[in-house]
Every structure is written in structure tokens, then in C-alpha cells.
From TrEMBL:
Signal peptide: none annotated. Keywords: FAD, Flavoprotein. InterPro entries: BaiN-like, BaiN-like_dom_sf, FAD/NAD-bd_sf, RsdA/BaiN/AoA(So)-like_dom, RsdA/BaiN/AoA(So)_Rossmann. Residues 191-346 form the RsdA/BaiN/AoA(So)-like insert domain. It comes from the Archaea. Pfam families: HI0933_like, HI0933_like_1st. This is NAD(P)/FAD-dependent oxidoreductase. Residues 7-401 form the RsdA/BaiN/AoA(So)-like Rossmann fold-like domain. Its cofactor is FAD.
């Protein structure tokens, strides 16, 4: 088998690699996959239900990729969410849209999405070799050579679609970063993204499993606020998760301080309301005076206790220091991050091949013509909700279009 020549070699049989390969017909295409079967990570997406994309146009989509929406936007314009839906529906996959805007196969089975991609590759006569990792990628006189255990394969174009480093058990172990660096590309230091956080002192652990809507979370580091995001929050047995945590985790680091606003009231407003309630109903217990805070009763009891307010304390007995701590707990509840969940639990990877060295309109390397980077190997990571898989399809579409033009 050694020495076989192809028009294009795709390294990685995830959603990006398979979709790119399927769109390269009539070129002769080889896909190399290190795992026993293709699409291992795709099959666990959305807990196996495969949140394949999200409702929205390219403009709204671009805002869901952290600081790198400008790079992804041309890809999203060329192949938007609506195109993804039409593509899979045309291949017999019925899709459903949740109230949240997330789009899933109606079967709620990732197998349907993977089967559609594999069928498309089969129709395009794509050759897929599994259990065959690429060991190195090189280029000489415009011809790329990919070394494997079965020998060296050559092609005029190579697509790196190896993913990032999240869920390494599915084959995403950062191989693409090594290949990129061998061509002089810069790799932005990767970190886990879309990851839960583990609290250093988890004082709300007894609320494990309870979620809260529209909670504001601010990230502080070295006494400075990094950013603030809002969304649904889930308390876990070890710390915090939910969309607001997952989407913000790309900016979080071990040791950061989170300030959680369980109440949507402003500090000054809430303080004034508490003082007025205590003055008007001083005989009532404190926790019974705080309905205006907009916090569920079970959480409220814990926040009152955390403020150092003894059980049975009435509004008339609430001291200034107690009230100050109570306001803080409701509007800036402090949580020190022991650590952000590692790659074994992170859904995505922040960091990757530097975007400055890749053409955002084609996903082609600026350093080595004919070399392409698509999907999560790039320094892009989307919010939870189908944005990362959509980026895989969109960048793959751009690369396939450019490769057909070149070859």
C-alpha cells in the first residue's frame, strides 16, 4: 500500500474531516483515522444525542466564538446553520429544533449524523483507513507526504482535521498541533474549554443537581475583573457547571475567583430593599423578608446561613455586618476555582493553530500552500449548543471548495 498517490489526504475522521472529504468529489481522497472507527467524538456529542447545530444567521453565530468570531464568520457565511440543516435533511436525517434553538436529529442519536457523513463519503468514493494514525506530514516540491505504519502516502493537498485535545479517549490528543508546528506554524497554548469548574471550598454542595436561570458570573484574577457572562448555572457535587460556566471556561484559570450574582438586583438596590423590609417587618425572620431578591427559597436559606446570620434572626436583629455579607452573597457570591475540568471532561479546546497564519476565507495555510486546517485544531472554540460542530462543517466547506479550485 505504501507509495499510493491521492489528490488530497485528510487527517482525522471527525465531523470536519468527513464532511470535507465528502465534498471533494470527483477527486481521489484518502482519510486517515487513528481510532478503530471514525467519528468517535461525534458519537458522544450532546451526550450521544448530537446537537448538530443551532438556529441563527452567520452574524449572530459569530458572537458565540469567544474572541475569534471574526475568523469564523466567512466560513459561517459560506456554509451557515441553515445549510447544515438542509444538507442532513436531504440525506434523510430528520432534524428537530428545541426551544433553546439547539438542533438535533429527531432520533436523538448521533449515529444518524455519522451514518449520513459516512454514506456521503462512500458515494464520493472516499477511501477511509482506520486504526492508521498519521505519524508525520512533510512537503517536498509541492507534494505532501504523510507517513504511517503502512508506509508513506502522497497528495497535492493535505487537510489537518485532528481536533484539539478534549476527550482524548476519542483520539483527540493534539496531533494536529505537532503537524502544524513542523511547517513553522505557531500553536496558541491549548486549554480545556466548555468545562465545569471545581470549587476550592464548595459550600453549596448540598444543592447539587439544582440549576438556576439567568445567573451572572464574573471572573476575577489578581484583583481585576476579566469579564462577566450571564446564563443558566448548575450546581454540581464538586462545583459549578451549566451554560454560563461552560461558555466562560475558555477564560478561566485555576485559582481564579468567581463572583456569582444569584439575584439580578443591584448591590445598592438590594441593600436598600433589605433595610426597608427590616424596618417595616422587624419581627419576621430574615429569610422570610427576602422574596424580592428573586432567589429560590432553598438557596436563600444557605446564603443567609453563609452570611453568618443565626437561625431565627429577625429583621430587627440583623446587624450591619450581617446585612453586608448577605448582600454580597446574593450579588457577588465568592467561589475560588480549585481547578477547571481537564481534557477528560472538557467538551472543547481553546487554543490551537494560530489564526494569523491561516487564510480565514479558505482555511489554507499562509505558510505552506496546499495545507489546510479545519475544525477544532484551529484556535477557535464555540459556546455550548452546536456551535463547535457547525464550525467544523463550515470550515470544512471552505477548505473543500478551495481544494477543488486548486486541483
Amino acid at each position: 500500500m505504501s507509495g499510493q498517490e491521492y489528490d488530497c489526504i485528510v487527517v482525522g475522521a471527525g465531523p470536519a474531516g468527513l464532511f470535507c472529504a465528502a465534498n471533494l468529489s470527483p477527486l481521489r481522497v484518502l482519510v486517515l483515522e487513528k481510532m478503530i472507527l471514525p467519528g468517535r467524538k461525534l458519537l458522544i456529542a450532546g451526550s450521544g444525542q448530537c446537537n448538530v447545530t443551532h438556529v441563527g444567521d452567520a452574524r449572530s453565530f459569530a458572537s458565540h466564538y469567544g474572541d475569534h468570531g471574526a475568523f469564523v464568520k466567512p466560513a459561517l457565511m459560506a456554509f451557515p446553520s441553515s445549510a447544515t440543516r438542509k444538507y442532513f435533511e436531504s440525506r434523510g436525517v430528520e432534524l428537530i429544533e428545541r426551544e433553546s434553538g439547539k438542533v438535533f436529529p429527531a432520533s436523538l442519536s448521533a449515529d444518524d449524523i455519522l451514518d449520513a457523513l459516512l454514506d456521503a463519503c462512500d458515494e464520493a468514493n472516499v477511501e477511509i483507513l482506520s486504526s492508521l494514525p498519521a505519524e508525520s506530514v512533510s512537503c517536498e516540491n509541492g507534494v505532501y507526504r504523510v507517513k504511517t505504519a503502512l508506509g508513506v502516502f502522497s497528495a497535492r493537498a493535505v487537510v489537518i482535521a485532528t481536533g484539539g485535545k478534549s476527550y482524548p479517549q476519542t483520539g483527540s490528543t493534539g496531533d494536529g498541533f505537532v503537524f502544524a508546528e513542523s511547517f513553522g506554524h505557531t500553536t496558541i497554548e491549548p486549554h480545556p474549554s466548555l468545562s465545569p469548574v471545581y470549587a476550592a471550598d464548595h459550600r453549596l454542595s448540598e444543592l447539587s443537581g439544582i440549576s438556576f436561570a439567568d445567573v451572572s458570573v464574573a471572573i476575577w484574577r489578581d484583583g481585576k475583573k476579566i469579564l462577566t457572562r450571564s446564563g443558566d448555572l448548575l450546581i454540581t457535587r464538586f462545583g459549578y457547571s451549566g451554560p454560563v460556566i461552560l461558555d466562560s471556561s475558555r477564560w478561566m484559570r485555576d485559582g481564579d475567583l468567581l463572583k456569582i450574582a444569584f439575584s439580578q438586583k443591584k448591590i445598592e438596590e438590594l441593600d436598600a430593599l433589605i433595610r426597608a423590609a427590616c424596618a417595616a417587618s422587624g419581627a419576621k425572620q430574615v429569610q422570610n423578608l427576602l422574596s424580592f431578591a428573586g432567589v429560590p427559597e432553598r438557596l436563600l436559606r444557605l446564603l443567609v446561613r453563609e452570611a453568618g446570620v443565626p437561625d431565627g434572626t429577625t429583621g430587627g436583629q440583623l446587624t450591619v455586618s450581617m446585612r453586608s455579607m448577605l448582600v454580597r452573597n446574593l450579588t457577588e457570591y465568592p467561589v475560588t476555582i480549585d481547578h477547571v475540568g481537564d481534557y477528560r471532561v472538557a467538551m472543547a479546546t481553546t487554543g490551537g493553530v494560530s489564526l494569523e497564519e491561516v487564510n480565514k476565507k479558505t482555511c489554507e495555510s499562509k505558510l505552506s500552500p496546499g495545507l489546510f486546517f479545519i475544525g477544532e485544531v484551529l484556535d477557535i472554540d464555540g459556546d455550548t449548543g452546536g456551535y463547535n460542530i457547525q464550525a467544523c462543517f463550515s470550515t470544512a466547506f471552505l477548505a473543500s471548495k478551495r481544494i477543488r479550485e486548486l486541483l
